[in-house]
Structures are given as structure tokens and as C-alpha cells.
Amino acid sequence: MAVRLDGKKISSDIEQEIAAEVKELIARGMRPPHLAAVLVGDDGPSRTYVRNKMKACEVVGFRSSLIKLPEDISEQELIARIEDLNRDDEVDGYIVQLPLPEHISVEHIIDIIDPKKDVDGFTPSNFGKIDQEHHSLLPATPMGVMELLKRYRIETRGKHCVVVGKSHIVGMPMGILLAGPGDATVTICHIYTRDLATHTRMADILVVAVGKPNLITADMVKEGVVVIDVGINRVPDGTKKKGYALRGDVDFEGVEPKASYITPVPGGVGPMTIASLIINTLEAYKKRHGLL
Hints:
The chain is α/β, with parallel strands linked by helices. It has helices at 7-27, 44-60, 75-87, 106-112, 124-127, 140-151, 171-179, 196-200, 252-255, 269-288, and strands at residues 3-4, 34-40, 63-69, 93-96, 160-164, 185-189, 205-208, 226-229, 233-236, 244-247, 261-262. It has a 6-stranded parallel beta sheet with strand order 1-11-8-7-5-6. A 3-stranded parallel beta sheet has the order 3-2-4, sandwiched between helices.
């Protein structure tokens, strides 16, 4: 039976480490780091994600600000609010929670985020530096996955890693981190990949991030595989109080007996993404104050 990669525990360990560092900074007479979040509209999952990020700030001693904006805000109005954050010397990092309403271009918004405050790691500047030794702020979810592998001492060097999904938020940067700092051989699969199972069965480490529940089944993996399930999907479930259950992109019950390590959903990658945002915010803070 596989070892479950406990992202909740590891993220808690990271938060404790950062909280201790923040206490030292405050003892030296410095202000705490400040993370802001921009939430457009009233999407339920987005509210939950932002709330969890704000809670993490409270745990580590950061100052946090939530900027709630209406669903019908114009793109130009949103840009103006983001430019305010770019100029605000009291804000060290910020996130613009995705998804955005359809009338707003995500690409336009990301392009105007100050890379020095881009704690999600989405801007072209930060994305382009992923494989550099002296990188800027890394994309939060792939960074969290790499930290999870590191803390469980799962070796990536020389391994064949298969990434299913090619988004610029997870799949592509994940592949770069595994191939670059991770020294792995990487295959990136996506919606147009023919015979997906042929590729996934060759994986020593399999990362899945497509948003399709139970896409990966037991017959699609080999014995001893390390499985990182980034997907989080709401699946109708009448037995649950909320009417749905959270499921990953991997058939957990079927794949777990064959895997050596596996992330549960929830409780695996999700908490590590939030921990990465906290790490990035502290790094942005240190750079602004000449501490790095």
C-alpha cells in the first residue's frame, strides 16, 4: 500500500518555520510581510481558496488584505486596482484569484502584475526564469509539488516523470522544474496525446493536472509509481451534506495499491500551493527590504 503524501502536515511544518522567522523580523523592528488577494465576483470555490490563504497568513503572522470586487467590474477598472497594488509600498505580494469573469482577459491581467509581487508566479517574467539557478518567484503549485517530493526524500534525478496537462499554471512549469532542477527525464502529455496510457505506464513519477475526475485508473500505471494528483473536482454525491465530494484526477482507490507514494485529494497538493504562496511572499518581502 502506498505512503500517502500528507501535504496538510508538511504545509503546517512550513508555516511554523515561517512564523518563527516572522517573529524574528518583528523583534528587529520590521513590519510583517503583507499579502493581498483580489477576488472578483462570488465564485464559491474561489471564496474558499482565498479564505484558506488568508488563514495561512494569520497563522504565520503576515498582514493580509482581501480586495473584493463585483463580477461586472470592467477590465480597465480591474487593471487600475492592480496598478494600485503595484505602487503600494506596504504590499509585498498579491494574487489575483482565478478564474476571472469571461469578459476579462486573464492574459492582460497577468501581464500587468509586477513580477516582484507576483507570488503566484504567473507573469511571463517569472515563468521565463523557472529553470534559471537564480530564479524569481516560482509558480506556486509546481513549487509546492517539488517541496513535497523533497520533504519525503523522493528522488527525481534520473527518473522518468510524466506530466499530464500542459497549462501554464501547473503542467508546463512542472515539467520545467522536474527536468531542470529535478534532473529528470520528462514527458508532457495533454488532450491531444494519443494512447495516454502508453505514456503513463512508463512513469516513475506521474503528475496529473487536467481537472477531469478519475482520468487515471489502475491499469494506466505501473507498480511502485509515485503519483501526484493536482486535480480537485466537485463530483455530485448525495451522501454528503454539501451534495458533492472532492475527487482528484486519479482514481485513488484503484491506483493506491499499486503506487509507492500518492497524494490524497483533498489534503495533498492543495495545502502545498498555499504554503508556496507564503514562501514566495516572504521571499518578495526580503528582496524589497534588501535581506536577500
